[in-house]
Specification:
The chain is mainly alpha-helical. It folds into two domains: 1-62; 63-111, no CATH class. It has six helices and no strands. The protein is elongated. The relative contact order is 0.03.
């Protein structure tokens, strides 16, 4: 409940409690609060026991924490034997490698002879967009009839 309270925050709360209630009333207040918390815990435990007895013997190992959807799914997946097969399948499939191969095929980085030339993007004519040598200062840019 109070997992995110640090030491400095706790000290500030204690100092505020001493200033507000005074050192003479603070022990009685702490005793009253601890008794109230104890009564609330007893009430909740009794309510849980009543619900378990009303549900019957088939729900004797029922836990109220299982009502949390995340805990429910985690518990049932841990009991399931198919989880091991899913982990093996997930380990054998490298998504990054597959995406890299598809991207290479789309960008024609690796021309494969078994794939038709039209799929690789090469129609037999040189690709004017990919020049390996820089143009000379007096050269005109290549003419592309499809671009005009």
């Amino acid at each position: 409940m109070f997992n995110d309270i640090g030491a400095l925050e706790l000290v500030v709360l204690v100092v505020l409690a001493v200033l507000i209630f005074g050192p003479d009333k603070l022990p009685k207040l702490i005793q009253d609060i601890s008794g109230f918390v104890r009564k609330i815990r007893d009430f909740s435990e009794n309510a849980k026991q009543d619900i378990r007895t009303e549900l019957g013997p088939e729900f004797k190992d029922f836990e109220f924490e299982d009502l949390n959807p995340k805990a429910f799914i985690r518990k049932h997946l841990a009991e399931n034997e198919d989880l091991k097969e899913l982990k093996e399948l997930r380990g054998s499939f490298d998504l990054r490698k597959e995406i890299g191969e598809v991207a290479d095929a789309v960008h024609s980085r690796e021309a494969d002879a078994s794939v038709p030339a039209a799929v690789n993007g090469s129609s037999g004519a040189p690709d004017l967009r990919k020049r390996t040598d820089p143009p000379a200062p007096g050269d005109r840019p290549p003419f592309d009839a499809d671009a005009t």
